[in-house]
Amino acid sequence: MARKNSRNTKGRIVSAAWKLFYDQGYDNTTVEEIIAESGTSKGSFYHYFEGKDALLETLSLLFDEKYEELQGVAEAMDAVAALTFLNRELFTMIDNRIPLELLARLLSSQLVTRGEKHLLDRDRTYFRLLHRIVRRGQERGELRSDITANEIVKGYAMFERALMYDWCLVGGEYALGRYAADMMPTFLEGYRTRR
């Protein structure tokens, strides 16, 4: 039970921080405001995070929460529809809840870090769910089996990161979710079984 409570506390801090980052900007948000919004304590905050900058690394946790919320729906679909659905829902969440500057900071921090690259962590819900969907799609004959599930998942994740990077690079001049809704199905056609 203690582990679940600690995960809930950390999750409340992360959720509160990202809400405040979106509402008032990263630079205008203080640790004290995050503590108050999350209903936790200063000790709890510093138990999990060295400071506000450490919260940038939690964006992947926020993404994983979204995937956990969507996995039941996605797993009931065929593989291409499920992957397209997950991408659309995540990118719509980014459009509506993640400030462009913070996504850009996360992507740039992942480029220069010598430590853990959270976006590439294969133990994330994201990668586990993608693997299940792709393997099931291969077993059903929906996706090509001459390419490994790992290669398909790697290609999909790489394409998602490329779309996010481009969106940041052009300053969010288009709706990420809408653009990806056009691009992702075209990309995934290359993995569909030829009939």
Number of helices: 9
Percent helix: 55-70%
What coarse outline follows from CA principal-axis ratios?
A: elongated
**What is the alpha-carbon Rg in Å?**
18 Å
How would you sum up this structure, described in words?
The chain is mostly helical and 195 residues long. The chain has 2 domains: 1-49, Arc Repressor Mutant, subunit A (Orthogonal Bundle); 54-191, Tetracycline Repressor, domain 2. The chain is 70% helix and 0% strand. It contains 9 helices and no strands. Helix 5 packs antiparallel against helix 9 and helix 7 packs across helix 8. The chain is elongated.
What order do the helices and strands come in, and which of them pair?
Elements: H1 2-24, H2 31-38, H3 42-48, H4 59-75, H5 79-97, H6 100-112, H7 125-139, H8 149-169, H9 176-188
Helix pairs in contact: 1-2, 4-5, 4-7, 5-7, 5-9, 6-8, 7-8, 8-9
Short structural description:
The protein has 195 residues and is mainly alpha-helical. The chain contains nine helices and no strands.
